[in-house]
Specification:
The complex is a heterodimer. In chain A, 35% of the residues lie in helices and 17% in strands. Chain A contains 11 helices and 8 strands. Chain A has an 8-stranded mixed beta sheet, sandwiched between helices. In chain A, α8 links the parallel β5 and β6. The longest helix of chain A is centred in the first third of the chain and has 15 residues. The mean pLDDT of chain A is 95. By secondary structure, chain B is an alpha/beta fold. Chain B has 2 domains: 185 residues, 3-Layer(aba) Sandwich (Rossmann fold), CATH 3.40.50.970; 112 residues, Rossmann fold (3-Layer(aba) Sandwich), CATH 3.40.50. In chain B, strands 2, 3, 4, 5, 6, 7, 8 and 14 form an 8-stranded mixed beta sheet that branches. In chain B, α1 packs across α2 and α12 crosses α13. The mean pLDDT of chain B is 97. Chains A and B meet through β2, α4 and α6 of A and α3, α4 and β10 of B. β2 of chain A pairs parallel with β10 of chain B. Bound molecules: thiamine diphosphate, iron/sulfur cluster (SF4) and magnesium ion (MG).
Amino acid sequence: MIDEQVLDGLHPMDKLLRADRIPHIWCPGCGIGTVVYSFLSALIKSGLDLDKVAVVSGIGCTGRAAGYINLDSFHTTHGRALPFATGLKLGNPELKVVVFSGDGDLISIGGNHFIHAARRNMDIAVICVNNFTYGMTGGQLGPTTPIRAKTTTSPYGNTEHPFNLPYLAAASGAVYVARWTSLDARRTERAIGEALAKKGFSFVEVIAPCPTLYGNMNKMKTGLDQMRFYEENSVIRHGAEPKDVDITLNGQIIVGKFVDIEKPTYLDLRDNIGSIV
Amino acid sequence: MSEKSPLSGVFFMTGDTACAEGAISAGCRFFAGYPITPATEIAERMAERMPQISGTYVQMEDEIASMNAVLGASWAGVKAMTATSGPGFSLMMENLGLGIMTETPCVLVNVQRGGPSTGLPTLVAQADMMQARWGSHGAYEIIALSPNSPQELFFLTIRAFNLSEKYRTPVLIMTDEVVGHMTERVVIPPHKNIARYARRKPQVPPGEFLPYKGSDDLVPPMANAGDGYRIHMTGLTHDERGYPDTTAEAQGRLIRRLIDKIQTNKDDIIEVEEDQLDDADVAICSYGISARVALLPIEQARQEGIKVGLLRLITVWPFPEEHVRRVAKNVKAIVVPELNNGQIALEVERCVAGAARVIPVPHMGGDIHQPQDILDAIHRGAK
Ligand SMILES: Cc1ncc(C[n+]2csc(CCOP(=O)(O)OP(=O)(O)O)c2C)c(N)n1
Ligand code: SF4
Ligand SMILES: [Mg+2]
């Protein structure tokens, strides 16, 4: 079957991309674009009314995603995508609000907002591209950088313990937690689809290459090297205990769906008090 | 409170409560905040009232989050406010800038207390006036209003919402602990008599809409999230489409417009009270609670035969330059009492440019001025 869009010369995602903003800023081999693709594919399949979907990003290479996606899209300040998204969702509960941002943005400077949005079970789907570094500012140490990994601010190797993001999300109250690598574009798409369908705070971590900086400094100079590493080292373990899915510099990357539970959302609980006001 | 809708009638209430009720009368239906003395009562009142009128009160994890939640709610199409004091005001500065850059209507109340740092949590100051003007990084204009009573705080909160929608910008209410905690008569007019500025929506279909192209008054209409316009908002310097454009030209165009939309509409934005200035040899120029304290020394000086008048700045930013210059032409001295080491006094000096003597009456806060200190300054000015 011939795809009409191919005949049109359109990319299948053209409707959901701001084509007038292409070329994008991402480096060759960067994993962020793949995650955007998985996200947009999941959106198309979700059946959501796309005029009622809003994407909120913070600042970073990943944070630029909001600017390329042809939906209501908000590029906020560093770390603040989640509280902005909280206001957006509470201001208009009809909206499906998705936060798409990086590890540094969501977990370092925005870490407090992350745990509190999860605690409230705010109805937001969070997609976190974890490239183990601050890409935008030139490859510094971040909150997920594995021990011993080199960055521009850990030139002798990182000596700080990193966060295990699924564990943090689950402990903070997320009702859906999954991790995939950008190599697994289809599974990533499926996980994002599930996160979009979930009521409450859902979290998908996507491990993605930053060949220019993190890869380059850690013996994986191309995106392909990093993809090969994912292929050889990622292990699918659905239902794994989040506390057991730490990531080390050269060790296994445990991927899969770790949490999928039901819990009243912030709005469920709030709307319950209606009768006593 | 059993009232389920915006109040009207005559009440005896604190400034903080009047502020919350002013917001409700203005159509505010979203409040995000974090407790801090002496602004907490605004949050408490909103926590009680918002659910009664199908609004949202959300207590965020800090003031950074509060400010961002307010911006998010505004983009969802809801009139939104937060209230804080010194330490929280400092935390809000970065995202106040996001609100200015992205032209997001909202209201931020600072019930000022003594600083720096934790300072005087329960006691008055007016020492954040320059922070209000310049606290976020970058070049910009800001609107800030300063009330001298709970009644005026009520009305200025409505005005703040209307200005924020009209000019698509965050508006600051720079009140203080004394006004916030003072209990006085507050008259709330019938709800239908209160003018509420409705957000200007795009008049063209999606695809033709340029979300950052100013209209004749330099203010762009605003599409909310969910309206089908698929807008993009960014804190980066952007073009008329809202897309990042980080060039000197784009910066020049955007920042110029953001400044000009306030500057060219100053006559509409600026409000002052002028009293007994016609024959005055000495003028008091002040704002908020300090302008109210000055009423007694003005009366005392008049009884002594010294001709003193008052220029009360209700709008503090943009600064009422023309009013100050006009007064300076006719008086020997301008006395500026304020609860800081002299902030607005510097602005007065800049505008007066030597045309009259400027006599600051600094007081570091903790309490209000002794009227005698202002009277002494009037005596010096009258010499
Ligand atoms: C308040 C503030 N501090 C610092 C910065 C500089 N900054 C921009 S992006 C960034 C890190 C982004 O890292 P991450 O979220 O992991 O995104 P990535 O670029 O890796 O996709 C930093 C520190 C900023 N913009 N704002
Ligand atoms: S610096 Fe790294 S994260 Fe940023 S675009 Fe390049 S490869 Fe991607
Ligand atoms: Mg990163």
